[in-house]
Amino acid sequence: xxxxxxxxxxxxxxxxxxxxxxxxxxxxxxxxxxxxxVLSTAARIADGDFDSWFDEWTATAGRVSAIAEAAEAAxxxxxxxxxxxxxSQYNSMAFFYVLGTRDPSRGPASFRxxxxxxxxxxxxxxxxxxxxxxxxxxxxxPGYWLSPDTDPRPRPLVILxxxxxxxxxxxxxxxxxxxxxxxxxxxxxxxxxQGAALYDQGLPFRPDWEAVITPVVDFALARPGVDARRIALxxxxxxxxxxxxxxxxxxxxxxxxxxxxxxxxxxxxxQNMTPEDLAALDTTPKAEYDAAAAAGLPHAPAAVxxxxxxxxxxxxxxxxxDLLHEVRxxxxxxxxxxxxxxxxxxxxxxEAFWPGQPAELYAALTCEKTLMPFxxxxxxxxxxxxxAPGLVCQRVFDWLExxxxxRDQ
Length: 409
What we know:
Blueprint: H1 15-26, H2 35-43, H3 50-73, H4 77-96, H5 107-123, E1 129-136, E2 139-146, E3 155-161, H6 170-181, E4 185-189, H7 195-199, H8 210-221, E5 226-236, H9 239-247, E6 255-259, H10 266-270, H11 275-283, H12 286-296, H13 302-312, H14 320-326, E7 343-348, H15 357-364, E8 369-374, H16 389-405
Parallel strand pairs: 3-4, 3-5, 5-6, 6-7, 7-8
Antiparallel strand pairs: 1-2, 2-4
Helix pairs in contact: 3-4, 4-5, 6-16, 8-9
């Protein structure tokens, strides 16, 4: 008999670990991961241990980076490209939990590693890719412009809007690859509070996302080969708020997709707070509230401390009192009805962060609209349908193609 095979963990009991594991397995559809690498790495991780998570994903990323280096040196471009893409994804897995580890100062190096691996993958991409700088309020936003070929004829464009903490490589699975395969351009970018715009430029989130998307659309329209009548905007996770918010004011968009639909970002912050906690937020002076939080937080469970640090990081607001009031501004009430373009709202079964809100956003829309459910029976449940990116892209892009084709009539 041969040697015993390593145990492959099928699941984590820690919800965040399980969600990330499912996302990594789903990403294999678009070659961002290999299922065997994902499961063997997960098997070495102590459930709920942030340091174990960071160390093991970093080790896997390092091993796969070495494969990429060797393949590239030997002239094996496809092998090198795929390995760099996987290394980027595994580094992003590690980076996600670095704030909960014994040494959060490793964060910048971890972020640089995931970004560098992604750039090396893009440099070997089989279709044209350009790193771009989008003019924005006296500076620029970083991005990547993907095209199917060099043919200059006008084509549809999908602008891919990330959520609150996803890696840039993740937007390939959420539509970047699917768009190019269908002959579209795709624009992936980091908005304020996201990726390099946050970690390299220090730009925080903002609720008025039209101030971001309007410059992005201006930039896109200035590039050759873009059909101005067929510009779509697709947002995932918290992008399910930002995209409808932007479309309520930026009317050059031909269609939008919110995956999932989000009416009130703030509800995900408040859903685990007691009525007493919520009352205190409105009745306690800021200094007193923050002092109590500072005294109590060190005694909170590690998972609670991490979640607050990670979710609060993109806002760059040091006061918890101010942060919990700021997130109330992320609300589409009274705004969703201003959207004019056709709108697709996904509604995954078991949505964890904003349950019930996709249907609520759909009901608030007065434009042409579609509510698209995804279910557990088809393996497409959960926030952003982590195990079913192929099915999601198929349905979403079929809808986009059919919707934008109406522009010819």
